[in-house]
Amino acid sequence: MSNHNAANEAAAQIQPAKGKLGVMIPGMGAVATTLIAGVEAVRKGFAKPIGSLAEMGTIRLGKRTEGNSPLIKDFVPLADLNDLVFTGWDIFGGNLYDAAKTAQVLDRDQLDQIKPFLEGIEPMPAVFDKHYVKRLDGKKVKTGRSKCDLANQIRNDIAEFKTRTDRQVMIWCGSTEIFLEPKEVHSTLEKFEKGLVNDDPDIAPSMIYAWACLKEGIPFINGAPNLTVDIPALQDLSKQAGVPTAGKDFKTGQTFMKTVLAPAFKTRMLGLSGWYSTNILGNRDGEVLDDPDNFKTKEETKLGVLDYILQPKLHPDLYKDIYHKVRINYYPPRGDNKEGWDNIDIFGWLGYPMQIKVDFLCRDSILAAPLALDLILFMDLANRTPALKKLGMQEWLSFYFKAPTVPEGLYPEHDLFIQSMKLKNTLRHIMGEGLITHLGLDYYGD
Ligand SMILES: NC(=O)c1ccc[n+]([C@@H]2O[C@H](COP(=O)([O-])OP(=O)(O)OC[C@H]3O[C@@H](n4cnc5c(N)ncnc54)[C@H](O)[C@@H]3O)[C@@H](O)[C@H]2O)c1
């Protein structure tokens, strides 16, 4: 079969992106409102979707000499932004215009341009329990006989949304929950479903949404560091039902920089003795993370990356004794404009020490919104692509996460450029195009 035929045949397996794509968001705070307002601003032609690989990125096909680098959105069949319809849940009343004003991420003038659209979306009452997010008090919260009853109420909300949209994706943009470890109740679907009936305390609200979502056959994305779908019960459900899951914790500011710099040191065989990271952050996320139990969940995903990238067991002379510390300090005056400092102690030839300082004055939700958009578009694509759908877990989207979930026995790839290659090669693969290995010998003749 010619390359052209192979490509046509592969592409024909993917269902087209016809009709409305419903986006369901538990947690409509800073990230969610910045995403939704941003999509509407782009649709109206007021702004560009900067930071979105799916909307702005290109993908090279064939040899460098062929000059064939289409836009990703022209290469794979992604949903059109005009077809996105949003809904979600939150514990705060009011509409999304008010929620976006509270989040203080986007300028008032920009919000006013799209005010009627934002006013038209009102979060549904949430499944919430203060035990899991200590610093928040729920105002619009569902009540039910048991966690199972609450989960079924979410299923009803989803069923109603299904009548208004053609396909759906759920993305958790809710708060970071307290640190939970996998327990017996998470070990099988049967035990998990019994746990729902028995109100097991190890079943957090995010798990209730995720279970309802997967049962309804809808892909689930975890933007927070919560345990949520990283449990055998829900992974089995995802795989058996062929419903994509992806997570976890958007890789936005400091960890994004870390997974660029650490691979650079390792590639050059430069040693590392310490990496001190601290942040000041004044938004609601910062307030929630000010509680030690909630911070522990975030700390785990932030700390993991260096070990996997640097592989101290393979390179003990360079990375055996790294002192790695991560701090997040709640500092209200900064709002969503986080400042992340890194002090990095490295050493080079003959062990001579050097230092690098990074001061990233970033905007948390401005960095997160395009990642959320890409994940929505790519997870919808995965759900229409038989070769990806059957996998359940979508590791090829690890590019977007601080703590990518991987099948048991595999370590996660954290290096941003390996992740980017993995993502693009997956797109080439599902479209029947040749993979790009960067070997390049074929440019030199025989
Ligand atoms: N750059 C970033 O902003 C970034 C990066 C990585 C991860 N995250 C994670 O994304 C999540 C959202 O961040 P944010 O800045 O938008 O926070 P936020 O506090 O502005 O929004 C979170 C919202 O979730 C709601 N919520 C909490 N529990 C809920 C529940 N059970 N059901 C429904 N709603 C619930 C809260 O009321 C709040 O409105 C957090 O977990 C955060 O750690 C954010």
Automatic annotation (TrEMBL):
<feature type="domain" description="Myo-inositol-1-phosphate synthase GAPDH-like">
    <location>
        <begin position="253"/>
        <end position="365"/>
    </location>
</feature>
<dbReference type="GO" id="GO:0006021">
    <property type="term" value="P:inositol biosynthetic process"/>
</dbReference>
<dbReference type="InterPro" id="IPR002587">
    <property type="entry name" value="Myo-inos-1-P_Synthase"/>
</dbReference>
<dbReference type="Pfam" id="PF01658">
    <property type="entry name" value="Inos-1-P_synth"/>
</dbReference>
<comment type="similarity">
    <text>Belongs to the myo-inositol 1-phosphate synthase family.</text>
</comment>
<dbReference type="GO" id="GO:0008654">
    <property type="term" value="P:phospholipid biosynthetic process"/>
</dbReference>
<dbReference type="GO" id="GO:0004512">
    <property type="term" value="F:inositol-3-phosphate synthase activity"/>
</dbReference>
<dbReference type="InterPro" id="IPR013021">
    <property type="entry name" value="Myo-inos-1-P_Synthase_GAPDH"/>
</dbReference>
<dbReference type="Pfam" id="PF07994">
    <property type="entry name" value="NAD_binding_5"/>
</dbReference>
<protein>
    <submittedName>
        <fullName>Inositol-3-phosphate synthase</fullName>
    </submittedName>
</protein>
<dbReference type="InterPro" id="IPR036291">
    <property type="entry name" value="NAD(P)-bd_dom_sf"/>
</dbReference>
